[in-house]
Amino acid sequence: MHLEVKHLQLVFNIKTLGSLSKCADAMNITQPAASHLLKTLETHIGIPVFNRVNKKMILTKAGEVLLNTAKELLPRLELCKELLANEIEGNNGSIKISTECVTSYNWFPSLLSSFEKMHPNVDIEIDVEATGNPIKFLLDGKIDLAIVIDPIKNKNLLYHELFRDEILLVVPYGHKLQEKKYVTSKDLINENYFMYTEDFENNTVAKKIMIPSNIKPKKVSKLQLTDAIIEMVNAGRGVTTMSNWLLKPYLVNKQLRGVRITKNGMFRKWYLASLVGNTQKYKTEFIKYFQSEFS
Question: How far apart are CA 46 and CA 257, in angstroms?
Fold first, then answer.
């Protein structure tokens, strides 16, 4: 017995549309071709599929079996074609993303949600484990994209610029440093410096001005949450450093001041890093979307 998809389509269309001529139109073939296909099907299975009664085509029991099979399989085949087409065109897949800086979690998850609404066939996952060292995870193939502020040269990496921000020293109201036009590494010698849980050597401000000057604050305190760090500084228990955009909401209700770091200020660029050759359409669209949000 030999059955093909076109046989199932034939039976389904005849039953649904009510005539062989309409079935032929739906299948984009001639009526004689449709009639021949039906005869070939009945010859293959050895019994009639339709009984001709008063010019009407009535399904036999064998025809009912074929119709039920068609109803089950044809939608699955169409879905399969759609999924394969999306894969070929690069319209659906998954993206794993992480960030070098924990403060990124204050803004980029909302962008992910917006992208997912526009691209429902793309599944996005945040890899928290890679936070702090996403480049290694990217090069190891464990994530697809990394948000970074300290790009390293590597022939396998591409960097897509997002935006530029300024890091400020955050002090409580009345602190001796609040009136200074800018601070240097020496101004931090006697301070309790609150930072996130990364090592001191990986802290942006430490790498930029303190370590090169061989200076370390009197005390370094680590906390994981931005709100906790802000409360500590607000209570006068130390100072911290923070991006201007991250600090801005806290200046409204907190007794805090932001002071420029170094005479020219301390600025940094944020990038979205990807692997060279990572050319799936949905990933390219994601990168373009991210960049457009900051343009």
Answer: 89
Range 213-238 average pLDDT: 94
| Whole-structure pTM value | 0.63
User: What SS3 class is residue 271?
Assistant: strand
CA-based nearest residue to 119, from 84, 94, 144: 94
pLDDT in tens, 252-294: 878 899 999 999 999 999 999 999 987 778 888 899 998 888 8
Q: Could you give the 3-state DSSP secondary structure of residue 21? A: helix
Question: How far apart, in whole angstroms, are the C-alpha atoms of residue 55 and residue 5?
Answer: 26
Instruction: State the distance between the two ends of the chain, measured CA to CA, in whole angstroms.
Output: 63
Q: Provide CB contacts within 8 A for 169, sequence distance 6+.
A: 177, 183, 187, 188, 239, 240, 241, 258, 259, 260, 261
Number of domains into which the chain is organized: 3
Residues 19 and 55 in one domain: yes
- State whether 134 and 172 are in the same domain: no
78 and 20 in a common domain:
yes
> Which three-class secondary structure state does DSSP give residue 221?
strand
What is the C-alpha to C-alpha distance for residues 155 and 157, in angstroms, rounded to an integer?
Answer: 6
- Weakest-pLDDT range from 83-87, 158-162, 172-176, 207-211: 83-87
Chain mean position to CA 39: 53
Residue type, 79: L
**Residue 293 · residue 183 · CB < 8 Å:** no
Structural domain harbouring 45: 5-89
Question: Do 228 and 211 sit in the same domain of this protein?
Answer: yes
- The CATH number of the domain holding residue 33 is 1.10.10.10
pLDDT digits (tens, 9 = 90+) for 173-182: 999 999 999 9
Nearest to 266 by CA among 194, 165, 181: 165
pLDDT category at 169 given cuts 50, 70, 90 is very high
